[in-house]
Amino acid sequence: MRKDAAAIPNSLTRNGQEVFPSSATTAAANLRERSHSPSKPDKSNRNSCSPLNIAGLVANLIILSITLFAYSAEEKLRNEVQEKCKNNPQLGNTFQQMHAQHSLPMPDRPMTKRREQEQTTTEAPDFHIIFSTGCSAKQDLQAYVLFHSIMESGQTGHATRIASGCPDDRTIKLREIFEKQIKIMAPERFHLHVTPEFGKVRNDKTGKVDTFHYLNKPYGTAHWMEHVLGYSPTTPSTRHDETIVVLLDPDMILVRPFINDFSDSEEIWRERTTYPHINKIRHGYPMAAEYGYSIAWYLGVNDIRDVVPANELPSPVSNMTKKQLTENYTCGPPYMATARDFYKLAAKWRQFSLPVLKLFPDNILAEMYAYSWAAAHLNMPHQTAHSFMVSQYPEAGFQLFDNKDYQPEQVCRGIPRQSRPHVLHYCQRYALGKYILGKHRLPQSFVGQEDPAKVCESPLLAEPPDNFAALFDYFIDPDPPHYRTDIKASKFGSNTKQDNINHLAYLICEESGALNRAALYYKQQHCDAATVNTAKTLIFHETLEISPEELNNFKPA
Fold first, then answer.
1. Whole-prediction pTM value?
2. β-pairing, 158-164 with 190-195?
3. Domain end: 119, 148, 174, which one?
């Protein structure tokens, strides 16, 4: 029997539901609004000291105290960061230089008027980014990097790690890590939610229990929405209905923040003719990234009754054309929808996950196929975009800067933020010259671990030069016998050889930079400034120099 009692939200609770406190600036704005709001004239002014007015005054004073406390805590954290930078000029200079290169807000840099307006406005809906993980040290690393990228990008709203299947001792340790390492980034906005293990499945043929950890994503998402946001089959609407929920994978980096209205945003949309194009996320209009698996989720099912129960037939899927299915349901993370819609999707996604897994037992995309089935069955067509996520160099999302004819010397660090994809999904291996990046090659001591000493001793990644894309048109494999592989034009599509080189250079520069900035932030918070290692020397070859032998070591045909 599963014990859901362990899944206690790491935040304030009220009547069993998580309470997300408003920011200090919003509280101050609310106080100002109440203080200056017009009131009805009262000639006698007899009620100026009535219990009701006194209660209102007390409430205002409480809100003001909370506001001042929040500002004080924020100022204290900023001063601590500045003090560490002051005590170690090398660390401070490294931090300043890395962030200046990426136009990121610094601890000692005043908030811009635009950022302040974004934080205090009440017109745009709130955002809540969620991502599902297990409990391994590897996913601690990924979670730290993702949380840091959310903070760094300027994304508004909240973010929650949904960790599933942690033993009791690991749950305790996970909460300690979160409190000490993650929460300090955004104390009011970053959260941890722990759920039971949902990835154990009994094999009908063998009778054995198999593990498919990806089931934790649909089940964990639904669990979070029910235990934190208060949704249920009998409570399809809550106070969070207007919140935009964005689901990411843990091995993602948020480069450009999400908004709910993309009318003026640079995007590469997936064209569709079966439904009108939309620019704004609202009820009934979800969005997602375009993925390349087409309608394999549909073609692999011979009988719809193997997925959809009899009491829900006929399904809208039965009447959809292949064009409708292709244009609107070939999607993956980031998934984005209003919370009200997302709960409908999550509940149906959870319901369809096991039936779909039985039809695709050896396919790691089975839970994504189940999402497509859920969305289509609910008749919720997704507006998809190539620019929401990139993971490999031939992808269409890179048209964001291909169409602007940037020179090879610019693509490493010279692409403006608004012309970059929103998310980098570092699920692939990237290689150019002797610079190699792959998530499985990163040492666990790189960042976000139980023992800060190991992270403090670990070097940062070696980062390529700005003209990276102009230096190489090949890569050397880091594994013996170290074959050389040339980058070529895409067989399908319009990508030239230089396009693909540019994309690889961007991916390596963006990922290595984001990983290093996350690790440096960690070192600032948890390491001795006198002994911390900030050298950018971590590589996956013995040396970055290319020998004549390696240059001519082509793989035999």
1. 0.80
2. parallel
3. 119
